[in-house]
Design goal:
This protein is mainly α and 346 residues long. It has 2 domains: 1-214, no CATH class; 217-346, no CATH class. The chain is built from 15 helices and 8 strands. Strands 1-2 form a two-stranded antiparallel ribbon. A two-stranded antiparallel sheet has the order 3-4. Strands 5-6 form a two-stranded antiparallel ribbon. It is globular. The termini are far apart. Bound molecules: NADPH dihydro-nicotinamide-adenine-dinucleotide phosphate.
C-alpha cells in the first residue's frame, strides 16, 4: 500500500503545484482553428524543484527512507501502469472519434492539444514524468550508495540524469516547438508513456545497478561517459535552440557563430542543421550512451537501444511530414543535407 500511496501522492502534488504555482504565459508553436497560437502556462522547473525538495526534506528528517522508491519500485510501477490506462480511457473516449479504428484512437489519441484553463495535458504529462523519473533515479542511487558508500558510477549517473531533467525544464518553452506538440495526439502512447513508461523505463540502468557493487574498471570510463554525454547534449540542445531561434525569427542572420542559412526563410540549412537532418536525435543517442556507460551495467544499454527504436521511425515519419509540408524545398534540403541522423553514416 505504501507504494500506491507514494506514487499517488507524487502525481497529485505535482498536479496541484502545476495548477497553483505562478509561471509565465507564452505563445506556443501550435495554432488553434482561428490561427491564433495556443497559450501555455510554464512553471515546470519550480514544480519539479519543490517536489524534489519535499522528498529530500522528508528523507533527511527520517519521515521516509531515502530509497523509498527503490523499495516500492514494483508497486509504484504497477500503480503507474494502471493510472496510465485509466488516464488513456478517460482522455480518449469522451472525445469525438477521428475516423480511425477504436484501437488506433486509444493508442494514438483523439485530441491534439487538450487544455483546461492553465492546464495543458501534454505539459503536465511531461512534467509529472520528469518528476517521477528524478525521484526514481535519486532513490535507486540512494539505495546503492547506502550499501556501497565508496561507489562513484551511480553518483555520476544520477548527476548526469538530474542535469538532463533540470536542463529540459529550463528550456520548457523550446519543447513547445517539437514533434510531440505539432504532430501527436494525447492517447495511450503519450499519456501512458509519460505516466508509466518514461519515469520507470528511462532509469532501467539503475534498476539493474542499484543493488550490485559497481563494476571494477578505471575512472577513465567515467570520464569518457561524461564527455560522451555532454557532446550529445551540445548537439541536441544546440540544434533545438537553433531551430527555436529560427522559428521565432527566420530573418535572423546568425545563431552564435553559425550563419543561419535557410531555403527561402523556411528550411534551415546552416549550423547544426547542416550536419544531418536530425542531428538532435544523434545528440539524444549520445547522451543516453553516456548514461549507460556511466552506470557500467550491460542492462543499461537497453535505454540507448530504445532510443534507436523510437527515433529512427520518428525521423522517417518526420521526413514524410516535412516532404508534404515543404515540397520541393524539402527535396532541395535532402540534396544539401543527405544524412538523416548520423553524418556520413546514416
Ligand atoms: P525536431 O525538433 O527535429 O522537430 C521536427 C520538426 O522541426 C519538423 O517536423 C519540422 O516542423 C521542423 N524542422 C525539421 N527540420 C527543419 C529544418 N531544417 N528547418 C526548419 N524546420 C525544420 O524533432 P522532435 O520534435 O522529434 O525532437 C525534439 C527534441 O526532443 C530532439 O532533441 C529529440 O532528440 C528530443 N526527443 C527526446 C525524447 C526523449 O524521450 N528524451 C523523445 C523524442 C524526442 P515544422 O516545419 O512544422 O516546424
Amino acid at each position: 500500500m505504501t507504494g500506491v500511496l507514494a506514487l499517488l501522492a507524487v502525481y497529485a502534488a505535482t498536479f496541484v503545484l502545476y495548477v497553483a504555482l505562478p509561471g509565465r504565459w507564452v505563445d506556443g508553436y501550435v495554432r488553434d482553428e482561428t490561427g491564433k497560437p495556443l497559450r501555455y502556462h510554464l512553471n515546470g522547473l519550480l514544480v519539479f524543484a519543490i517536489v524534489i525538495a519535499g522528498y529530500v526534506a522528508l528523507a533527511a528528517t527520517g519521515t521516509i527512507a531515502w530509497d523509498l522508491f527503490y523499495r516500492e519500485r514494483v508497486t509504484t510501477l504497477v500503480t503507474a501502469i494502471v493510472l496510465g490506462l485509466v488516464f488513456t480511457v478517460a482522455i480518449v473516449l469522451p472525445a469525438p472519434p477521428t475516423g480511425r479504428s477504436l484501437g488506433a484512437d486509444l493508442y494514438l489519441g483523439r485530441r491534439a492539444n487538450p487544455q483546461w484553463g492553465r492546464v495543458d495535458a501534454k505539459m503536465f504529462l511531461y512534467l509529472v514524468g520528469a518528476v517521477m523519473l528524478e525521484l526514481n533515479v535519486l532513490s535507486f542511487t540512494a539505495h546503492h550508495v547506502l550499501q556501497f558508500p565508496a561507489s562513484t558510477s551511480m553518483v555520476v549517473y544520477a548527476a548526469l540524469f538530474s542535469f538532463f531533467l533540470v536542463e529540459y525544464l529550463c528550456f520548457e518553452r523550446v519543447h513547445l516547438y517539437t514533434y510531440d506538440f505539432v504532430a501527436e495526439r494525447v492517447g495511450f502512447k503519450l499519456g501512458w508513456g509519460c505516466l508509466a513508461f518514461y519515469p520507470f523505463f528511462y532509469c532501467i540502468g539503475a534498476w539493474f545497478a542499484a543493488s550490485e557493487p559497481e563494476p571494477a574498471r578505471s575512472r577513465g570510463w567515467l570520464v569518457v561517459a561524461i564527455l560522451l554525454f555532454f557532446a550529445g547534449w551540445s548537439l541536441a540542445r544546440g540544434a533545438n535552440l537553433q531551430k527555436f531561434a529560427f522559428k521565432l525569427n527566420p530573418a535572423r542572420a546568425k545563431f552564435g557563430p553559425f550563419a543561419q542559412t535557410s531555403l527561402e526563410g523556411r528550411v534551415l540549412v546552416g549550423g547544426f542543421w547542416r550536419l544531418s537532418r536530425h542531428i538532435n536525435y544523434l545528440g539524444e543517442l549520445l547522451m543516453a550512451s553516456g548514461l549507460a556507460l556511466a552506470i557500467g551495467h550491460p542492462g543499461a544499454w537497453l535505454y540507448p537501444l530504445y532510443y534507436i527504436g523510437l527515433l529512427v521511425p520518428r525521423q522517417l515519419d518526420d521526413d514524410r511530414r516535412c516532404a508534404e509540408k515543404y515540397g520541393v524545398l524539402w527535396e532541395q534540403y535532402k540534396r544539401t543535407v543527405p544524412y538523416r541522423i548520423i553524418p556520413k553514416i546514416y
